[in-house]
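# step 3/5: fold
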Amino acid sequence: MAHIFLYGPPGSGKSTIGQLLSHRLERKFIDVDQTIEASARMIIRDIFAAEGEAGFRIREQRALRDAAADVEPCIISLGGGALLNPDSRAFAEAKGVVLFMDVSVAILEQRIANKPNHRPLLAVNTDCAQPPAAGKGKPIAQLLAERASHYGSFPHRVVVGTGSPEETTDCVQAELGLYHVSGMGKPYDVVIGADLLAQLDKQLQALEIGKKTVIVGDTHTLPLYGDRVVKALHRAGIEASCFAIPAGEATKTLETVSTILGAFAKAGIERTHTVIALGGGVVGDLTGFAAAIWMRGIRWINLPTTLLAMVDSGIGGKTGADLPEGKNLVGAFHAPSAVFIDTSTLATLPVSELRCGLAETIKHAIIGDPGLIPLLERFSCCKRADPSKPCSATTDAKTLIPLVARSLAVKVKTIIKDPYEKNVRASLNLGHTIGHAIEHHAHFSMLHGEAVAIGTVIEARLAEKAGLASPEFADQLATIFATVGLPTTLPQGISCSQLIDAMLRDKKTANGKIRFSLPIGLGDVRIHQVVDEALLRQI
Protein backbone atom coordinates (compact mmCIF):
# COMPACT_ATOMS: atom_id res chain seq x y z
CA MET A 1 0.00 0.00 0.00
CA ALA A 2 3.05 2.28 -0.41
CA HIS A 3 4.05 4.66 -3.19
CA ILE A 4 5.01 3.30 -6.61
CA PHE A 5 7.98 5.08 -8.22
CA LEU A 6 8.38 4.64 -11.98
CA TYR A 7 12.01 5.05 -13.00
CA GLY A 8 13.95 4.62 -16.21
CA PRO A 9 15.94 6.43 -18.91
CA PRO A 10 14.56 9.49 -20.70
CA GLY A 11 11.90 8.43 -23.18
CA SER A 12 10.95 5.17 -21.44
CA GLY A 13 7.30 6.23 -21.13
CA LYS A 14 7.11 6.74 -17.37
CA SER A 15 4.54 9.52 -17.58
CA THR A 16 2.29 7.66 -20.03
CA ILE A 17 2.38 4.42 -18.04
CA GLY A 18 2.05 6.32 -14.77
CA GLN A 19 -1.19 7.93 -15.88
CA LEU A 20 -2.63 4.59 -17.05
CA LEU A 21 -1.59 2.92 -13.79
CA SER A 22 -3.07 5.81 -11.84
CA HIS A 23 -6.41 5.27 -13.57
CA ARG A 24 -6.42 1.51 -13.01
CA LEU A 25 -5.42 1.69 -9.35
CA GLU A 26 -7.41 4.87 -8.62
CA ARG A 27 -4.33 6.50 -7.15
CA LYS A 28 -3.03 10.05 -7.52
CA PHE A 29 -0.40 10.50 -10.23
CA ILE A 30 2.56 12.84 -9.67
CA ASP A 31 5.06 13.64 -12.42
CA VAL A 32 8.15 14.98 -10.63
CA ASP A 33 9.40 16.77 -13.77
CA GLN A 34 6.07 18.57 -14.16
CA THR A 35 6.15 19.50 -10.48
CA ILE A 36 9.62 21.01 -10.90
CA GLU A 37 8.51 23.02 -13.93
CA ALA A 38 5.43 24.32 -12.12
CA SER A 39 7.50 25.37 -9.11
CA ALA A 40 10.25 27.02 -11.16
CA ARG A 41 7.84 28.45 -13.74
CA MET A 42 10.33 27.30 -16.35
CA ILE A 43 10.62 24.25 -18.55
CA ILE A 44 13.38 21.81 -17.61
CA ARG A 45 15.60 22.78 -20.54
CA ASP A 46 15.61 26.41 -19.32
CA ILE A 47 16.33 25.30 -15.74
CA PHE A 48 19.38 23.44 -17.01
CA ALA A 49 20.47 26.50 -18.98
CA ALA A 50 20.07 28.83 -16.01
CA GLU A 51 21.19 26.63 -13.09
CA GLY A 52 23.07 23.75 -14.65
CA GLU A 53 22.51 20.09 -13.89
CA ALA A 54 23.56 20.58 -10.26
CA GLY A 55 20.86 23.18 -9.71
CA PHE A 56 18.27 20.98 -11.36
CA ARG A 57 19.19 17.98 -9.18
CA ILE A 58 18.65 20.05 -6.04
CA ARG A 59 15.16 20.94 -7.25
CA GLU A 60 14.58 17.30 -8.20
CA GLN A 61 15.49 15.98 -4.74
CA ARG A 62 13.13 18.49 -3.13
CA ALA A 63 10.29 17.59 -5.52
CA LEU A 64 10.81 13.85 -4.86
CA ARG A 65 10.50 14.33 -1.10
CA ASP A 66 7.45 16.57 -1.49
CA ALA A 67 5.73 13.97 -3.69
CA ALA A 68 6.45 11.13 -1.27
CA ALA A 69 5.09 13.20 1.63
CA ASP A 70 1.56 12.57 0.33
CA VAL A 71 -0.31 10.47 2.91
CA GLU A 72 -2.19 8.45 0.29
CA PRO A 73 -0.21 5.96 -1.86
CA CYS A 74 0.63 7.60 -5.18
CA ILE A 75 2.07 6.75 -8.58
CA ILE A 76 5.20 8.91 -8.92
CA SER A 77 7.06 9.31 -12.21
CA LEU A 78 10.75 10.17 -11.79
CA GLY A 79 13.23 11.73 -14.16
CA GLY A 80 15.90 9.51 -15.71
CA GLY A 81 18.58 10.56 -13.21
CA ALA A 82 16.47 11.20 -10.12
CA LEU A 83 17.90 8.27 -8.14
CA LEU A 84 21.56 8.68 -9.07
CA ASN A 85 21.95 10.35 -5.71
CA PRO A 86 22.25 7.49 -3.14
CA ASP A 87 20.26 9.42 -0.55
CA SER A 88 17.39 9.95 -2.99
CA ARG A 89 17.39 6.28 -3.92
CA ALA A 90 17.38 5.17 -0.27
CA PHE A 91 14.54 7.61 0.43
CA ALA A 92 12.41 6.33 -2.47
CA GLU A 93 12.97 2.67 -1.58
CA ALA A 94 12.00 3.40 2.02
CA LYS A 95 8.78 5.08 0.92
CA GLY A 96 7.63 2.50 -1.60
CA VAL A 97 8.67 0.28 -4.48
CA VAL A 98 10.79 1.46 -7.40
CA LEU A 99 9.94 -0.12 -10.73
CA PHE A 100 12.52 0.29 -13.49
CA MET A 101 11.34 0.57 -17.11
CA ASP A 102 13.94 -1.06 -19.34
CA VAL A 103 13.90 0.09 -22.97
CA SER A 104 16.21 -0.70 -25.90
CA VAL A 105 18.45 1.95 -27.42
CA ALA A 106 16.62 1.70 -30.76
CA ILE A 107 13.22 2.49 -29.25
CA LEU A 108 14.64 5.33 -27.15
CA GLU A 109 16.40 6.87 -30.15
CA GLN A 110 13.13 6.92 -32.08
CA ARG A 111 11.20 8.47 -29.20
CA ILE A 112 13.86 11.10 -28.55
CA ALA A 113 14.01 12.02 -32.24
CA ASN A 114 10.25 12.67 -32.15
CA LYS A 115 10.79 15.29 -29.40
CA PRO A 116 14.17 16.79 -30.28
CA ASN A 117 14.17 19.71 -27.81
CA HIS A 118 12.50 17.98 -24.90
CA ARG A 119 15.45 16.44 -22.98
CA PRO A 120 18.43 18.69 -22.22
CA LEU A 121 20.96 15.94 -21.49
CA LEU A 122 20.42 14.20 -24.81
CA ALA A 123 21.55 14.91 -28.35
CA VAL A 124 19.10 14.41 -31.19
CA ASN A 125 21.91 13.00 -33.33
CA THR A 126 22.19 9.47 -31.98
CA ASP A 127 25.21 8.41 -34.01
CA CYS A 128 27.65 7.50 -31.23
CA ALA A 129 30.59 7.62 -33.67
CA GLN A 130 30.02 11.34 -34.12
CA PRO A 131 30.60 13.41 -30.95
CA PRO A 132 27.77 15.75 -30.00
CA ALA A 133 28.19 19.46 -30.50
CA ALA A 134 29.06 21.52 -27.44
CA GLY A 135 26.02 22.15 -25.26
CA LYS A 136 23.87 19.77 -27.30
CA GLY A 137 23.88 16.82 -24.91
CA LYS A 138 25.01 13.26 -25.55
CA PRO A 139 23.58 10.29 -27.48
CA ILE A 140 21.18 8.09 -25.51
CA ALA A 141 23.44 5.06 -26.05
CA GLN A 142 26.27 6.88 -24.29
CA LEU A 143 24.00 7.92 -21.43
CA LEU A 144 22.80 4.33 -20.98
CA ALA A 145 26.37 3.05 -20.99
CA GLU A 146 27.36 5.54 -18.30
CA ARG A 147 24.42 4.57 -16.13
CA ALA A 148 24.41 0.84 -16.92
CA SER A 149 25.41 -0.38 -13.46
CA HIS A 150 23.00 2.01 -11.77
CA TYR A 151 20.04 1.16 -14.01
CA GLY A 152 20.81 -2.56 -13.80
CA SER A 153 20.69 -2.58 -10.00
CA PHE A 154 16.92 -2.24 -9.61
CA PRO A 155 15.26 -5.62 -8.95
CA HIS A 156 11.72 -4.69 -10.00
CA ARG A 157 11.79 -4.07 -13.73
CA VAL A 158 9.65 -4.31 -16.86
CA VAL A 159 10.95 -4.54 -20.41
CA VAL A 160 9.21 -1.94 -22.56
CA GLY A 161 8.85 -3.12 -26.15
CA THR A 162 6.80 -2.06 -29.14
CA GLY A 163 3.48 -3.07 -27.58
CA SER A 164 0.77 -0.61 -26.65
CA PRO A 165 0.93 1.42 -23.42
CA GLU A 166 -1.97 -0.69 -22.14
CA GLU A 167 0.05 -3.88 -22.68
CA THR A 168 3.05 -2.35 -20.90
CA THR A 169 0.81 -1.37 -17.99
CA ASP A 170 -0.40 -4.98 -17.82
CA CYS A 171 3.23 -6.04 -17.41
CA VAL A 172 3.80 -3.39 -14.76
CA GLN A 173 0.87 -4.65 -12.71
CA ALA A 174 2.01 -8.25 -13.04
CA GLU A 175 5.49 -7.29 -11.82
CA LEU A 176 4.08 -5.27 -8.93
CA GLY A 177 1.45 -7.87 -8.08
CA LEU A 178 -1.14 -5.15 -7.57
CA TYR A 179 -4.71 -4.78 -8.87
CA HIS A 180 -7.71 -2.64 -8.00
CA VAL A 181 -11.21 -4.05 -8.36
CA SER A 182 -14.21 -1.75 -8.76
CA GLY A 183 -17.84 -2.02 -9.75
CA MET A 184 -19.28 -3.86 -6.74
CA GLY A 185 -19.61 -1.70 -3.65
CA LYS A 186 -16.44 0.02 -2.44
CA PRO A 187 -13.40 -0.70 -4.64
CA TYR A 188 -10.62 -2.79 -3.11
CA ASP A 189 -6.99 -3.68 -3.72
CA VAL A 190 -5.62 -7.13 -4.51
CA VAL A 191 -1.97 -7.43 -3.44
CA ILE A 192 0.26 -10.37 -4.47
CA GLY A 193 3.63 -11.15 -2.93
CA ALA A 194 5.71 -13.50 -0.82
CA ASP A 195 5.45 -13.55 2.99
CA LEU A 196 2.52 -11.11 3.05
CA LEU A 197 0.86 -12.83 6.02
CA ALA A 198 3.77 -12.00 8.29
CA GLN A 199 3.58 -8.37 7.11
CA LEU A 200 -0.19 -8.09 7.36
CA ASP A 201 0.02 -5.31 9.96
CA LYS A 202 1.80 -3.09 7.41
CA GLN A 203 -0.71 -3.96 4.68
CA LEU A 204 -3.62 -3.02 6.93
CA GLN A 205 -2.34 0.45 7.80
CA ALA A 206 -4.38 2.14 5.07
CA LEU A 207 -7.59 0.22 5.91
CA GLU A 208 -10.11 1.04 8.58
CA ILE A 209 -11.09 -2.41 9.82
CA GLY A 210 -11.98 -1.83 13.47
CA LYS A 211 -10.24 -3.17 16.56
CA LYS A 212 -11.67 -6.68 16.64
CA THR A 213 -11.86 -9.58 14.21
CA VAL A 214 -12.51 -13.29 13.81
CA ILE A 215 -10.13 -15.24 11.57
CA VAL A 216 -12.10 -18.03 9.91
CA GLY A 217 -9.92 -20.86 8.63
CA ASP A 218 -10.17 -24.61 8.32
CA THR A 219 -8.49 -27.50 10.08
CA HIS A 220 -5.61 -27.32 7.59
CA THR A 221 -4.94 -23.59 7.27
CA LEU A 222 -5.29 -22.38 10.85
CA PRO A 223 -2.59 -24.70 12.28
CA LEU A 224 -0.25 -23.64 9.47
CA TYR A 225 -0.85 -19.90 9.32
CA GLY A 226 -3.19 -18.84 12.13
CA ASP A 227 -0.48 -17.79 14.61
CA ARG A 228 1.34 -15.78 11.93
CA VAL A 229 -1.79 -13.79 11.13
CA VAL A 230 -2.78 -13.32 14.80
CA LYS A 231 0.67 -11.92 15.67
CA ALA A 232 0.54 -9.49 12.75
CA LEU A 233 -2.93 -8.32 13.79
CA HIS A 234 -1.82 -7.86 17.39
CA ARG A 235 1.03 -5.65 16.19
CA ALA A 236 -1.62 -3.56 14.43
CA GLY A 237 -3.58 -3.27 17.68
CA ILE A 238 -6.39 -5.59 16.57
CA GLU A 239 -7.95 -8.17 18.90
CA ALA A 240 -8.18 -11.45 16.98
CA SER A 241 -9.74 -14.84 17.67
CA CYS A 242 -9.66 -17.90 15.40
CA PHE A 243 -12.49 -20.20 14.33
CA ALA A 244 -11.83 -23.43 12.44
CA ILE A 245 -14.26 -25.27 10.19
CA PRO A 246 -13.64 -28.79 8.84
CA ALA A 247 -11.62 -28.75 5.63
CA GLY A 248 -13.21 -29.86 2.37
CA GLU A 249 -16.08 -29.14 -0.02
CA ALA A 250 -18.51 -31.18 2.10
CA THR A 251 -18.26 -28.37 4.68
CA LYS A 252 -19.72 -25.79 2.30
CA THR A 253 -23.22 -25.84 3.77
CA LEU A 254 -25.68 -23.52 5.46
CA GLU A 255 -25.05 -25.42 8.68
CA THR A 256 -21.40 -24.34 8.57
CA VAL A 257 -22.45 -20.76 7.85
CA SER A 258 -24.55 -20.92 11.01
CA THR A 259 -21.54 -22.01 13.08
CA ILE A 260 -19.47 -19.14 11.64
CA LEU A 261 -22.20 -16.68 12.57
CA GLY A 262 -22.15 -18.14 16.07
CA ALA A 263 -18.41 -17.43 16.24
CA PHE A 264 -19.08 -13.82 15.23
CA ALA A 265 -21.64 -13.53 18.00
CA LYS A 266 -19.35 -15.06 20.62
CA ALA A 267 -16.52 -12.68 19.67
CA GLY A 268 -18.79 -9.64 19.79
CA ILE A 269 -18.36 -8.69 16.15
CA GLU A 270 -20.15 -5.41 15.41
CA ARG A 271 -20.90 -3.47 12.24
CA THR A 272 -17.69 -1.48 12.60
CA HIS A 273 -15.56 -4.64 12.64
CA THR A 274 -14.04 -6.67 9.82
CA VAL A 275 -13.72 -10.47 9.66
CA ILE A 276 -10.98 -12.39 7.88
CA ALA A 277 -11.01 -15.54 5.73
CA LEU A 278 -7.81 -17.60 5.81
CA GLY A 279 -7.97 -20.55 3.44
CA GLY A 280 -9.10 -21.82 0.08
CA GLY A 281 -12.27 -21.28 -1.89
CA VAL A 282 -14.60 -22.96 0.62
CA VAL A 283 -13.35 -20.82 3.51
CA GLY A 284 -13.54 -17.66 1.42
CA ASP A 285 -17.03 -18.34 0.07
CA LEU A 286 -18.47 -19.22 3.47
CA THR A 287 -16.80 -16.40 5.37
CA GLY A 288 -17.79 -13.85 2.75
CA PHE A 289 -21.38 -15.08 2.83
CA ALA A 290 -21.47 -14.97 6.64
CA ALA A 291 -20.11 -11.42 6.48
CA ALA A 292 -22.79 -10.50 3.92
CA ILE A 293 -25.63 -11.52 6.24
CA TRP A 294 -24.18 -10.73 9.68
CA MET A 295 -25.91 -7.55 10.87
CA ARG A 296 -27.02 -7.09 7.24
CA GLY A 297 -23.47 -6.86 6.02
CA ILE A 298 -20.04 -6.23 7.51
CA ARG A 299 -16.61 -5.93 5.92
CA TRP A 300 -14.33 -8.87 5.30
CA ILE A 301 -10.77 -9.46 4.11
CA ASN A 302 -9.69 -12.49 2.13
CA LEU A 303 -6.34 -14.25 2.61
CA PRO A 304 -6.47 -17.06 0.02
CA THR A 305 -4.00 -19.88 0.62
CA THR A 306 -4.65 -22.16 -2.39
CA LEU A 307 -3.77 -21.45 -6.02
CA LEU A 308 -7.41 -21.92 -7.01
CA ALA A 309 -8.56 -19.28 -4.55
CA MET A 310 -5.69 -16.96 -5.49
CA VAL A 311 -6.43 -16.91 -9.21
CA ASP A 312 -10.20 -17.33 -9.16
CA SER A 313 -12.58 -17.65 -6.22
CA GLY A 314 -10.65 -15.32 -3.91
CA ILE A 315 -11.73 -12.17 -5.74
CA GLY A 316 -14.94 -10.98 -7.35
CA GLY A 317 -17.25 -11.00 -4.35
CA LYS A 318 -19.17 -14.17 -5.17
CA THR A 319 -19.97 -15.79 -1.83
CA GLY A 320 -22.25 -18.66 -0.87
CA ALA A 321 -22.86 -22.25 0.09
CA ASP A 322 -24.01 -25.49 -1.51
CA LEU A 323 -27.38 -27.19 -1.13
CA PRO A 324 -28.12 -30.90 -1.57
CA GLU A 325 -29.76 -29.92 -4.88
CA GLY A 326 -26.66 -28.25 -6.30
CA LYS A 327 -23.48 -26.23 -5.92
CA ASN A 328 -23.50 -22.53 -4.94
CA LEU A 329 -27.29 -22.27 -5.14
CA VAL A 330 -27.45 -19.93 -2.14
CA GLY A 331 -25.24 -16.90 -1.75
CA ALA A 332 -24.71 -13.19 -2.26
CA PHE A 333 -22.49 -10.75 -4.11
CA HIS A 334 -20.44 -9.21 -1.29
CA ALA A 335 -17.02 -7.81 -2.22
CA PRO A 336 -14.14 -8.01 0.25
CA SER A 337 -12.41 -4.89 1.56
CA ALA A 338 -9.04 -6.24 0.44
CA VAL A 339 -7.39 -9.42 -0.80
CA PHE A 340 -3.82 -10.27 0.22
CA ILE A 341 -2.29 -13.17 -1.69
CA ASP A 342 0.77 -14.68 -0.03
CA THR A 343 2.28 -17.06 -2.56
CA SER A 344 4.56 -18.59 0.08
CA THR A 345 1.52 -20.50 1.41
CA LEU A 346 1.61 -22.60 -1.76
CA ALA A 347 4.76 -24.33 -0.48
CA THR A 348 2.52 -26.48 1.76
CA LEU A 349 -0.20 -27.07 -0.84
CA PRO A 350 -0.63 -30.72 -1.93
CA VAL A 351 -0.12 -31.36 -5.63
CA SER A 352 -3.77 -32.38 -6.00
CA GLU A 353 -4.87 -28.90 -4.85
CA LEU A 354 -2.17 -27.19 -6.92
CA ARG A 355 -3.57 -28.89 -10.03
CA CYS A 356 -6.98 -27.44 -9.21
CA GLY A 357 -5.54 -23.94 -9.32
CA LEU A 358 -3.72 -24.71 -12.54
CA ALA A 359 -7.06 -25.74 -14.06
CA GLU A 360 -8.38 -22.23 -13.40
CA THR A 361 -5.16 -20.73 -14.75
CA ILE A 362 -5.64 -22.69 -17.98
CA LYS A 363 -9.23 -21.49 -18.06
CA HIS A 364 -8.04 -17.88 -17.84
CA ALA A 365 -5.49 -18.55 -20.59
CA ILE A 366 -8.31 -19.74 -22.85
CA ILE A 367 -10.48 -16.75 -21.98
CA GLY A 368 -8.00 -13.93 -22.30
CA ASP A 369 -4.27 -14.66 -22.05
CA PRO A 370 -2.91 -17.57 -24.12
CA GLY A 371 0.58 -16.43 -23.09
CA LEU A 372 -0.04 -18.12 -19.74
CA ILE A 373 0.22 -21.57 -21.32
CA PRO A 374 4.04 -21.58 -21.74
CA LEU A 375 4.36 -20.70 -18.03
CA LEU A 376 2.73 -24.05 -17.19
CA GLU A 377 5.83 -25.95 -18.30
CA ARG A 378 7.27 -25.21 -14.86
CA PHE A 379 4.50 -27.37 -13.39
CA SER A 380 4.82 -30.43 -15.63
CA CYS A 381 6.25 -32.21 -12.57
CA CYS A 382 2.70 -32.25 -11.17
CA LYS A 383 1.85 -35.04 -13.61
CA ARG A 384 4.20 -37.46 -11.88
CA ALA A 385 4.29 -36.10 -8.32
CA ASP A 386 2.60 -37.65 -5.29
CA PRO A 387 -0.77 -35.84 -5.18
CA SER A 388 -0.81 -35.79 -1.38
CA LYS A 389 2.49 -33.95 -1.04
CA PRO A 390 3.67 -30.42 -1.94
CA CYS A 391 5.46 -29.75 -5.22
CA SER A 392 8.92 -28.19 -5.56
CA ALA A 393 7.53 -25.82 -8.22
CA THR A 394 5.70 -23.87 -5.50
CA THR A 395 8.81 -22.61 -3.73
CA ASP A 396 9.98 -20.16 -6.39
CA ALA A 397 8.39 -16.74 -5.89
CA LYS A 398 9.85 -15.50 -9.19
CA THR A 399 7.77 -18.14 -10.99
CA LEU A 400 4.65 -18.05 -8.84
CA ILE A 401 4.02 -14.32 -8.55
CA PRO A 402 3.89 -13.68 -12.35
CA LEU A 403 1.75 -16.80 -12.87
CA VAL A 404 -0.75 -15.73 -10.21
CA ALA A 405 -0.69 -12.09 -11.29
CA ARG A 406 -1.27 -12.77 -15.00
CA SER A 407 -3.98 -15.32 -14.35
CA LEU A 408 -5.68 -13.01 -11.89
CA ALA A 409 -5.49 -10.12 -14.36
CA VAL A 410 -7.90 -11.92 -16.71
CA LYS A 411 -10.50 -12.18 -13.97
CA VAL A 412 -9.96 -8.63 -12.71
CA LYS A 413 -10.52 -7.13 -16.16
CA THR A 414 -13.61 -9.25 -16.65
CA ILE A 415 -15.33 -8.48 -13.36
CA ILE A 416 -14.59 -4.76 -13.63
CA LYS A 417 -16.45 -4.78 -16.95
CA ASP A 418 -19.34 -6.84 -15.55
CA PRO A 419 -19.30 -7.13 -11.72
CA TYR A 420 -22.74 -8.76 -11.36
CA GLU A 421 -22.41 -11.26 -14.23
CA LYS A 422 -24.97 -9.83 -16.59
CA ASN A 423 -22.77 -10.19 -19.65
CA VAL A 424 -19.05 -10.84 -20.23
CA ARG A 425 -18.36 -12.13 -16.71
CA ALA A 426 -20.24 -15.25 -17.75
CA SER A 427 -17.09 -16.23 -19.68
CA LEU A 428 -15.54 -17.12 -16.32
CA ASN A 429 -18.07 -19.96 -16.13
CA LEU A 430 -16.11 -21.81 -18.82
CA GLY A 431 -15.99 -25.47 -17.83
CA HIS A 432 -18.13 -24.88 -14.75
CA THR A 433 -21.58 -25.76 -16.07
CA ILE A 434 -20.56 -29.35 -16.71
CA GLY A 435 -17.93 -29.24 -13.97
CA HIS A 436 -20.43 -28.44 -11.23
CA ALA A 437 -22.70 -31.23 -12.46
CA ILE A 438 -19.78 -33.68 -12.28
CA GLU A 439 -18.94 -32.56 -8.73
CA HIS A 440 -22.54 -32.99 -7.66
CA HIS A 441 -22.89 -36.54 -8.99
CA ALA A 442 -19.45 -37.52 -7.73
CA HIS A 443 -20.65 -36.42 -4.27
CA PHE A 444 -17.68 -34.02 -4.24
CA SER A 445 -15.19 -36.89 -4.21
CA MET A 446 -13.67 -35.21 -7.28
CA LEU A 447 -11.84 -31.93 -6.70
CA HIS A 448 -13.23 -28.74 -8.21
CA GLY A 449 -10.30 -28.12 -10.57
CA GLU A 450 -10.43 -31.68 -11.86
CA ALA A 451 -14.13 -31.30 -12.66
CA VAL A 452 -13.49 -27.94 -14.37
CA ALA A 453 -10.76 -29.48 -16.54
CA ILE A 454 -13.11 -32.26 -17.66
CA GLY A 455 -15.95 -29.78 -18.11
CA THR A 456 -13.83 -27.46 -20.26
CA VAL A 457 -12.76 -30.26 -22.61
CA ILE A 458 -16.32 -31.58 -22.93
CA GLU A 459 -17.64 -28.07 -23.58
CA ALA A 460 -14.98 -27.68 -26.29
CA ARG A 461 -16.28 -30.91 -27.87
CA LEU A 462 -19.80 -29.46 -27.76
CA ALA A 463 -18.45 -26.35 -29.54
CA GLU A 464 -16.91 -28.62 -32.18
CA LYS A 465 -20.15 -30.54 -32.69
CA ALA A 466 -22.04 -27.26 -32.97
CA GLY A 467 -19.65 -26.13 -35.70
CA LEU A 468 -18.23 -23.29 -33.60
CA ALA A 469 -14.72 -24.63 -32.93
CA SER A 470 -12.16 -26.37 -35.10
CA PRO A 471 -12.26 -30.21 -35.02
CA GLU A 472 -8.98 -30.54 -33.10
CA PHE A 473 -9.50 -27.82 -30.49
CA ALA A 474 -10.81 -30.07 -27.70
CA ASP A 475 -7.86 -32.42 -28.12
CA GLN A 476 -5.51 -29.42 -27.93
CA LEU A 477 -7.08 -28.37 -24.62
CA ALA A 478 -6.99 -31.94 -23.31
CA THR A 479 -3.26 -32.04 -23.96
CA ILE A 480 -2.73 -28.78 -22.05
CA PHE A 481 -4.68 -30.01 -19.02
CA ALA A 482 -2.95 -33.39 -19.10
CA THR A 483 0.46 -31.70 -19.04
CA VAL A 484 -0.08 -30.85 -15.36
CA GLY A 485 -1.80 -34.12 -14.52
CA LEU A 486 -5.45 -33.07 -14.76
CA PRO A 487 -8.15 -35.52 -15.98
CA THR A 488 -10.00 -34.79 -19.21
CA THR A 489 -12.68 -37.48 -19.51
CA LEU A 490 -15.82 -38.27 -17.54
CA PRO A 491 -15.33 -40.61 -14.57
CA GLN A 492 -17.08 -43.95 -14.74
CA GLY A 493 -20.53 -44.16 -13.21
CA ILE A 494 -21.77 -40.71 -14.30
CA SER A 495 -24.30 -40.77 -17.11
CA CYS A 496 -25.27 -38.12 -19.61
CA SER A 497 -28.84 -37.94 -18.26
CA GLN A 498 -27.52 -37.37 -14.72
CA LEU A 499 -25.42 -34.46 -15.89
CA ILE A 500 -28.28 -32.89 -17.82
CA ASP A 501 -30.56 -33.21 -14.80
CA ALA A 502 -27.99 -31.46 -12.59
CA MET A 503 -27.32 -28.74 -15.18
CA LEU A 504 -31.04 -27.95 -15.46
CA ARG A 505 -30.93 -26.97 -11.76
CA ASP A 506 -27.80 -24.85 -12.26
CA LYS A 507 -28.24 -21.15 -11.53
CA LYS A 508 -27.05 -20.30 -15.06
CA THR A 509 -30.06 -22.05 -16.60
CA ALA A 510 -32.71 -19.64 -17.97
CA ASN A 511 -36.24 -20.54 -19.09
CA GLY A 512 -35.39 -24.21 -18.85
CA LYS A 513 -32.45 -23.83 -21.25
CA ILE A 514 -28.93 -24.75 -20.18
CA ARG A 515 -26.57 -21.93 -21.09
CA PHE A 516 -22.89 -22.53 -21.68
CA SER A 517 -19.76 -20.44 -22.05
CA LEU A 518 -18.19 -22.37 -24.90
CA PRO A 519 -14.49 -22.22 -25.84
CA ILE A 520 -14.09 -21.48 -29.55
CA GLY A 521 -10.33 -20.95 -29.62
CA LEU A 522 -7.51 -19.67 -27.43
CA GLY A 523 -8.63 -16.20 -26.39
CA ASP A 524 -12.19 -16.73 -27.66
CA VAL A 525 -15.11 -17.82 -25.45
CA ARG A 526 -18.78 -17.44 -26.49
CA ILE A 527 -21.17 -16.79 -23.61
CA HIS A 528 -24.85 -17.69 -23.18
CA GLN A 529 -24.72 -20.48 -25.75
CA VAL A 530 -27.70 -22.85 -25.78
CA VAL A 531 -26.74 -26.31 -27.04
CA ASP A 532 -29.25 -28.62 -28.69
CA GLU A 533 -30.28 -31.44 -26.33
CA ALA A 534 -29.36 -34.01 -28.96
CA LEU A 535 -25.76 -32.80 -28.78
CA LEU A 536 -25.83 -32.82 -24.99
CA ARG A 537 -26.81 -36.46 -25.01
CA GLN A 538 -23.66 -37.25 -26.95
CA ILE A 539 -21.47 -36.18 -24.01
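# step 4/5: annotate
Residues 3-173 form a domain with the Rossmann fold fold (CATH 3.40.50.300).
# step 5/5: archive (pending)
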